[in-house]
Amino acid sequence: MARSDSAADAANPGRLKQIALTFKMTRKADKTIGFVLAGVFLLTFGVFLAIGFLIDHPVYLGILGLLLAFLATAIVFGRRAERAAFGQMEGQPGAAAAVLDNIGRGWTTTPAVAMNRSQDVVHRAVGKAGIVLVAEGNPNRVKSLLAAEKKKMNRIVADVPVHDVIVGTGEGQVELKKLRTTMLKYPRVLAGPQVTATNDRLRALGDLMSNMPLPKGPMPKGMRLPKGGGGKSR
Fold first, then answer.
1. Domain shared by 109 and 49, yes or no
2. For the chain, what is the domain count?
3. Does 222 map to a domain?
4. Which residue, 140, 111, 96, 109, is CA-closest to 207?
5. 110 CA to centre of own chain
6. pTM (global) more than 0.85
7. How far apart are CA 212 and CA 220, in angstroms?
8. What are the pLDDT digits (tens) for 43-71?
9. Which H or E run contains 199?
10. Domain ranges, residue 37
């Protein structure tokens, strides 16, 4: 018991510190976050407390209102923090890879399977929906990267469906914040063993990330690929 209590005590400050850090980062992009959260908390608590006085049970409804006020505030905070995070990532090379890494269980992500010197990049995700190629960069340039990758996929795993997505805000593109939802909407057509077999066959292709000193997640702006490294995955 003593060990579990001490572990919990050590974890709590870490969680509080993480929440505080998230709040500070969110406030940089959302100046009204503090007022919004305070408003949600007070409104939720106030409504339940008022109902409690009306039905002559202010204590019970006050306690329930307090708990629901914390819950509502946490939900609103999470959504606005997520929106702020996507806003800061939008347009940065490698941002889609960061989203794919957090898409959930059942997906295997390989960042930067194709890239050119202009930092247009294609990532690959494999799951029960098949293969999803996610491109980010100039829409005109990434189309050729996607076409090359789809041709390669059809040659190696012809029996697996291949979807393609271009991340962006233009017509026919998918916004970064909607990428996860879009991928989860694809119909599941592969069984678990088929997904494993597909990953094994694709692993032989290798990827640019395993052969180049590129950081994970969004890449620094202005970063240049070394000569001879652009366009095709190995």
1. no
2. 2
3. no
4. 111
5. 14
6. no
7. 15
8. 999 999 999 999 988 899 999 999 999 99
9. helix 192-203
10. 2-89
